Amino acid sequence: MRITESKLVWTSVLLASNALAQAELPTPISPINGEIFIRYVAGHESICVANSSGDKTTTRVTKDSSGALKLMSEIDTNGNSLQITMGLNASGTGFSSTEPQFQSKQTLPEPVLKFLKAALINASKKSNYALGVPLWQNKSVAVAEDMCSLFPQLKPRFHSGNFKIIGATLLHGRETILFRGEETISCQLPDGQTFEIHMKGWKGVDRLSGLDSNSSISLITNGSSEEKNTNTDCEITMDNAQAIVPLGSSTTKSAERRLTELKSLLDKGLISQEQYEKKRTEILTTL
What we know:
It is a single chain. The chain has helices at residues 3-14, 110-123, 147-150, 251-267, 273-284, and strands at residues 44-50, 56-63, 69-77, 80-87, 101-104, 140-141, 155-171, 174-188, 194-206, 212-221, 228-238. It is an alpha+beta fold. The protein has 2 domains: 3-244; 245-287. Helix 4 packs antiparallel against helix 5. The protein is globular and about 60 Å long. 23% of the residues are buried.
């Protein structure tokens, strides 16, 4: 890919947003007690829509007949659809060594397709800021530290800032861990030019499935005073036929843990009594 093509592609990918106002944080927010761990769990699906562009991303965590976990995403943008399948490790805390697979329903421009493939292959070799590591209230995490190294022909120059865990809330009836903060990332092109991105806002991660939830992120590039905002709304559902219990736990112990967490949500006022009773019944039917 020529440098001029690269500039056009990564600029369009990073700045696919507009001047929408940043969305307010969901409330109420409750502090997280102790340490928690998040991982991808089979049987869950998220449908996320970017309010700025209408682009839709559908992501599923599945397992095949051998029990191998996979993360399958379908991105619909501007009438084009790209399907991506990435293998996960056995614990659901990161990607396996399997190379991502791609399938495009409609023809994407070759520079864009090459660009996305390279970025996703690089992403599959890196760890996720929220998965497989202990998380706690006010913990700092680097959401975008590796952004430059993901994209073809870009080299990282510096990174500053971080996001912090500010607590948990309920989104679409599911417990969501919230991260808020701002980071600055500077990348260098082969011709020596630099590209700087300042991002700020908040992101949500679904605690049970590990999938991304709602977010609101603004970007400022190369010293511009204009903010580009992307607000994303996600709805996550579960397919009980595909769902698996946490590793190292029996079905009974898993149910006990979920019931305890459910009661905690009720006590914190994050769910109603009706929601509690309905979910409690669902959990008990798995025994």
